[in-house]
Amino acid sequence: MNQDRTGAEEAASSGEEIIEAEVELEGSQSVEFNCDECGADMIWDPAADALTCAHCGNQVEVPRSEGTILERELSEAEGAQRGLGLQLRVASCDTCGARVTFEDLNTADLCVYCGSATVLEQEANRNAIRPESLVPLDVSREQVHENFRKWIKGLWFRPSALKHTKNFEAAGIYVPFWTFDAQVHSDWSADAGYYYYVTQTYRTRVNGKMVTRTRRVRKVRWRPAWGSRDDHFDDHLIHGSSGQPAGLVRSLGSFDTGGLVPYRPEYLAGWRAEEYGIDLQQAWEKAQQDIIAIQEQRCSGDVPGDTQRHLRVSNLISEVRWKHVLLPIWSLQYRFGGKAYTVLIHGLTGRIVGKAPYSWVKILLLVLSLGLVVAVIVMLSSM
Fold it and tell me: Domain count of the chain?
């Protein structure tokens, strides 16, 4: 099924008037979402799971069942739609490299990821591949603030004043990812090792005399082994951001791609979206590295015996398909002691990962306390 129509065009063809919209996918890339009650701008509200007017409170549901989520072959990149379908500007950070969009009414002053003030306003990349689908932001700003306060109060060995931090700002961001499906056939060979034990005698000195002792020594009997396996990769995620450390994003936990819905610009209304810094070809190269590493682990698990050596794996990767998707993450910045700190919040589960300053006074007191306890134990044991 072809998914060349926008969400507004699909709604019009089905006779359902969702919102007043002006859509031009080619050229201006502009979309406006106006309230049909008062004419004010509407934004996506994660708490209500709908477009909401900040002026009069009118809400409009965004149908999630319309359209088709496409998965494309690698050769079909040129046929993908371009741009996000919104009139946006971009804040490009000279420090971490992130390119995050913001709407015309907002001002880009600090990077939402690293807090750097060295951001340069640019136009959005209209030639960037449009997302095929996204998972709508589902954690509200109020929930983010509540989770952050709980997280910061639960930290150990931090300055006591940190628990009373009030100066923080959260930004909901749709982060770019690439997903890959692939069929993989792997042939492997290795030396399979089987443990066995022999009894050895040896001479040692006991109480000044040489005596004979015996001991069991483990040895390995090596035998050749080989085999093959077939595996399917479904929605293997590759982080497409240039502004967020991939390891920190992985610490947030997995994203359920079963919640993907066909891309509609309504979900981005009032929120930010990061342009991918890792393009399709670079993402596929990373995905191949992941697939090769995963298959080596799987084939290693197929080798019989107690241990192994000289594992060799040959992979045939076929039936590759990809999607460009947006997944929701909150980036929250707070300041303490004149320094900016950034934490990331999972846009679906609310899980928080990030850094916070340590209290070296508390750590020093702990070390001194442990040293005192050890000293007391040693003193008591010597009495």
Answer: 2
Q: What is the 3-state secondary structure (H, E, C) of the chain?
A: CCCCCCHHHHHHHCCCCCCEECCCCCCCCCCCEECCCCCCEEEEECCCCEEEECCCCCEECCCCCCCCCCCEEHHHHHHCCECCCCCEEEEEECCCCCEEEEECCCCCCCCCCCCCCCEEEEECCCCCECCCEECCCCCCHHHHHHHHHHHHHCCCCCCHHHHHCCCEEEEEEEEEEEEEEEEEEEEEEEEEEEEEEEEEEEEEEECCEEEEEEEEEEEEEEEEEEEEEEEEEEEEEEECCCCCCHHHHHHCCCCCHHHCEECCHHHHCCCEEECCCCCHHHHHHHHHHHHHHHHHHHHHHHCCCCEEEEEEEEEEEEEEEEEEEEEEEEEEEEEECCEEEEEEEECCCCCEEECCCCCHHHHHHHHHHHHHHHHHHHHHHHC
Range of the domain at 336: 7-186+226-363
Q: Is the residue at 214 inside a domain?
A: yes
**Could you tell me the pTM of the whole model?**
0.71
* Same domain, yes or no: 59 and 198: no
pLDDT tens profile 195-250: 999 999 989 988 888 999 999 999 999 999 999 999 999 999 999 887 666 677 88
